[in-house]
Amino acid sequence: MTKTRIQWHHLTSTLWFVPTVMVLGGILLAFIFIEIDILAGNDFGIFGAVFRVQPSGAREMLGVIAGTAITVAGTVFSITIVALTLASTQFSPRILRNFMSDTGNQAVLGALVGVFAYCIIVLRTIRDGGENAADNFVPAVSVVFGILLGFVGIGCLIYYIHHVAISIQATNIISVIAEETIAEIRETFPVRDDSPLIDAETEKSLANTDFSEVCSTRIGYIQNADTAELGRLAEKYDLVLKMQRRVGQFAIKDLPILRIFPKSKNFVLDQTLIKKLRNAYDISNYRTVEGDVAFGLRQIADIALKALSPAINDSTTAVICVDYLTAILSCLAKRPSCPTNVFKNGKMRLIIEQQRYEDFFDLAFNQIRQNAGGNVAVILRQLNSINILSKINLKLDCENERRERHELMETQARLLFEMARRTIEADADLQTVERYYRRIEKSLTERENKI
């Protein structure tokens, strides 16, 4: 992802950017309508009964609208804080940025403060000439439009109450995270990776080449690495770059994030190039789904773990999480776990070590399995997920990786059954799990012969 795109995403994920733009829009609209009033004068024709209003009445109406708008904006902000607190305690603190970047919340806040800004600007132009009515100036068109904006504010409040009630539901939270993660998978991981891999000769050449390292200047998670810029710099200086820390991993100050293999023996690494290479990275104190598919899985897995905790004990939410994790893994299962290397004019310039499918699979299954002891519903749903994923695995083009993934699923199914035998006390429940496991075990054996 480019620097411009990641910065734009960070900007639109804040609670202040959209409201600020809408405040400026409200101010601009106020000046436009005031200018219309100045040009129109008092010639309203047949609409005179609608547009004519006295200065005192105009002030009162706009004052009420402005006061109400800013009061409701404060209420909306308070409700947002309560929703954030509830989501953090009930689900996971890692989902808070999803609420902050919610377009509906930002638009409602922006609309209300925009109405307030509009009314304030129009109010300052109202002039009461006292006994001399000729000196009066009431921007009638602007006042009528302000009244219309007041009704828009009422609509925004009604929408916001409905939106918050929907957005704090567990199913909605999980589905939004899953959709973002699947969208990132489709953008980041190609269905077929036709880029050349590192051959033995290249690996040997790199191993025998002296290298330099670029270290991080700060502590935090790598949110983004501009691979296009890194590839451009590598081509310009005739280098091969290898990422030591991928997007989503934690960077520690003074530890390497990038390794440089020069093609020329006369290459000298100067501070200008080091600065350019560091600027291609974005490091912050939190992770995002953009470029980091594992974080999407991590969020849903965390919600499942919270639901399985003794304090909450919500098996239904845990089952929903397993369903959506299966949907994400299904999307990943169609894609090979190949490193996405960057080539320029047929020459390798950047080596990127992507996470493999088994890493995502373990992230989605292991902790939930370890915390689902005795929970028949979650165990059965995970076994069902393995059955679904094993079917999709048959369609993968790479035979070696297909076999590796199949063995991974067999191991996970066996671990689930062994855990069930240790933790399920009721014989009837254990027999149910065993019958289901035996059916899946038979299916896995049949599919193994087709690999």
How much helicity do the residues have?
55-70%
Outline:
flat
**Main beta-sheet strand count, sense and barrel state:** 5 strands, mixed
Class from secondary-structure proportions: alpha+beta
- Unreliable stretches covering 5 or more consecutive residues: 45-49
Listing every helix as H and every strand as E from the N terminus to the C terminus, the arrangement reads HHHHHHHHHEEHEEEHEHHEEHHHH
Count every helix, treating DSSP H or I runs of 4 or more residues as helices: 17
Give the beta-strand count.
Answer: 8
The largest beta-sheet arranges its strands as 1-5-3-8-7
Please tell me how large the radius of gyration is. Answer: 30 Å
Indicate the proportion of strand residues: 5-15%
Q: What's the rounded overall pLDDT mean?
A: 86
How far is the first residue's CA from the last residue's CA? Answer: 36 Å
Can you walk through the features of this model?
Helix content is 64%, strand content 8%. The chain is α+β, with helices and mostly antiparallel strands and 451 residues long. It has a five-stranded mixed β-sheet with strand order 1-5-3-8-7, with helices on one face. Strands 4-2-6 form a three-stranded antiparallel β-sheet. A hairpin with a 2-residue loop joins strand 7 (342-344) and strand 8. The longest helix is centred in the N-terminal third of the chain and has 36 residues, at 55-90. The two termini are 36 Å apart. Residues 45-49 have low confidence and may be disordered.
